[in-house]
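Subject: design request, 120 residues
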């Protein structure tokens, strides 16, 4: 059995719904962390625990080999690979003005690189 009960494996968060977190384990298997398997405390918002695209460690609770579906948990394990969570993006007072200022230069530089590399 590829995903044995109790095994800790790595997966990528592919979706977050009000009832749980979807995790892609490989090209065939996907899993669900039910909201009750996230924390021993009350969980209001699953987005406070994970982000879509984040790679996390998960504990296998059960595996349906026929349907390639796995029941997962992050309760009571260190589920973050690096142990750190990305901080929330904080908007600066400049807003998009920095992007507006630098974008034309970045585009021009990239176009020059592409021209030099292709010889066109």
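Subject: RE: design request

Done. Sequence follows.
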């Amino acid at each position: 059995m590829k995903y044995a009960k109790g095994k800790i494996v790595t997966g990528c968060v592919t979706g977050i719904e009000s009832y749980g977190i979807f995790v892609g384990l490989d090209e065939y298997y996907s899993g669900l962390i039910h909201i009750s398997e996230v924390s021993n405390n009350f969980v209001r918002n699953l987005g406070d625990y994970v982000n879509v695209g984040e790679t996390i460690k998960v504990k296998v609770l059960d595996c349906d080999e026929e349907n390639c579906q796995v029941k997962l948990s992050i309760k009571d394990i260190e589920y973050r690979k690096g142990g750190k969570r990305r901080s929330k993006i904080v908007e600066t007072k400049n807003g998009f003005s920095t992007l507006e200022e630098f974008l034309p230069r970045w585009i021009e530089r990239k176009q020059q690189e592409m021209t030099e590399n292709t010889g066109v």
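The mean pLDDT is 88.
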